[in-house]
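Section 5.1 Outputs to date
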Amino acid sequence: MMPLDLGAKASCHIGGNVSTSAGGLRLLRYGSLHGSILGLEAVLANGEIVNCMSAMRKDNTGYDLKQLFIGAEGTLGIVTQVAVLCPRRPQAVHVAFLACRSFGEVLKVLHQAKGMLGEILSAFEVMDQAAMNVVTKNLHLKNPLGDSNYYLIVETSGSNAEHDGAKLDKFLQDLMDKGMVHNGTVAQDINQRKEIWALRERVAEGMLHEGFNYKYDVSLPTQNFYDLVADMQKHLGQDLPCVGYGHVGDGNLHLNIASPQYDKRVLDRIEPYIYEWVANHGGSISAEHGLGLKKRNYIHYSKTPSAVKLMKQMKQLMDPKGILNPYKVLPD
């Protein structure tokens, strides 16, 4: 199976996934595309085809040129073929949906999951109460747990349903005994798994009903993961709802802010405040969505001047006329 699963799977293309180095829901288990892409072919600005289509997992002959095109957003070349390391589809999948009162409890559950579920842990997602309200109110989805400050999706994938189920049951019992969660449920079939995942995957869709969305995709140390949401809500005030959700297992937060319509004054209150906050806490201003047009002039919050200088030199060498996806990634 494709080692990448994301909310846009019904509309995205593999070439775009590679060019943006998309992360998705199961990076915790399968890693990033930088590791899953064994080889690729790309067309350069001058029309030359660069063939790096080796399918060998070990190929240490010279520079690993394929990595230049993964996450470059099409600014260095157009990806035309890829060789992907595809894991076998798991025979047993279990999904637990849990409720926590504090983010401190969320972090404790994450630590416990990595220790007790180990090799079968495939996803660990979080969404706050505001995110849950968005999907239940606007999309009429059902919340099986009732009100809570935080909700977790813990997924395991393996080859033995009995073995994996026993490990999950022991893990959940341990959480309840230690008071790390106050409510929870386990999906009994594939339909219930889909219903639980829909709560998380359709948050962005639900936010569209709230007005204009200011969307941010950042990575942060897990201990600071939700602090950004709380600080941004305090910074903006209650009139501008902030919704936090994402891949807490790998430190990737999706922060969405809504206003009735686009307002430059609101944007100026958000940026560059959010980028400064992320930089001050050792994070990245773009975890998996890329810089594109809107974030390119903020790249210095995550990259040093010497790194940006080298990127510009590479762009000039490989695309001297600037015809490949112009005005993206690199700053003015």
